[in-house]
Specification:
The protein has helices at 11-24, 89-99, 112-124, 128-139, 149-170, 174-182; strands at 33-36, 40-52, 55-64, 69-74, 84-85. It is an alpha+beta fold and 196 residues long. A 5-stranded antiparallel beta sheet has the order 4-3-2-1-5. A hairpin with a 3-residue loop joins strand 1 (33-36) and strand 2. Mean pLDDT is 82; it is low at 1-23.
Length: 196
């Protein structure tokens, strides 16, 4: 018996349902790769609803660090938490170009604490170009054995975040991405030559 036209699914209706489901998940779909400023690259794993403090919330689930960390973020707070789609190839190219520009000098009279706070703010922005600026500015000191522990930590965190995003965008390994960065700036101290 043939189906009546009113009961046949329409292609536009199916597309509209998919679009509505994506909008409900703050513009993401399950399986989408995302970037969090502090946790790096992750994936959207699902959604749920919860009542917190008497308020009903729609939560989007994100998994980071190969499933070791799961964040459940209210849909309305996804953008405020800095969670975004992975950078495109053009943005990654811009970030790599930033590495080859002249490092910003240290202004006189600025304490390390203030400078570290500025660098950390750039790092936490989630913008690959700003993360590249942190790497570029701190790479001048990579061979200084007297650089501070906090400077090394900020440098290594920036290197990790940029390399992981490059690897995810280019579908390669983190080591290959670090190699691309190392072609532009020093990423590790040079070994000290031993006199023969």
């Amino acid at each position: 018996m043939p189906m009546e036209p009113a009961t046949m699914p329409k292609p536009d209706a199916a597309r509209a349902t998919t679009t509505a489901a994506t909008k409900d998940m703050a513009g993401f779909a399950v399986g989408d790769a995302v970037m969090h400023p502090a946790h790096g690259v992750g994936r959207v794993t699902g959604e749920s609803a919860a009542v917190v403090g008497g308020e009903s919330l729609e939560l989007i689930h994100f998994s980071f660090g190969e499933g070791r960390l799961t964040l459940r973020v209210p849909r309305a707070k996804v953008a405020a938490n800095g969670i975004r789609r992975l950078a495109g190839g053009a943005l990654i190219a811009e970030a790599l170009d930033v590495l080859t520009t002249t490092p910003r000098g240290v202004a006189r009279g600025i304490t390390w604490a203030r400078r570290a706070a500025e660098l950390q703010a750039k790092l936490n922005s989630g913008d690959p170009r700003k993360v590249a600026e942190v790497l570029r500015d701190l790479s001048r000191n990579v061979n200084n054995p007297e650089r501070s522990f906090s400077e090394r930590q900020i440098f290594e965190a920036a290197l990790e975040r940029l390399a992981v995003e490059i690897a995810a965008v280019e579908n390669t390994t983190k080591e290959v991405a670090i190699g691309q960065i190392a072609e532009r700036i020093p990423v590790a101290p040079q070994p000290i030559a031993v006199a023969a």
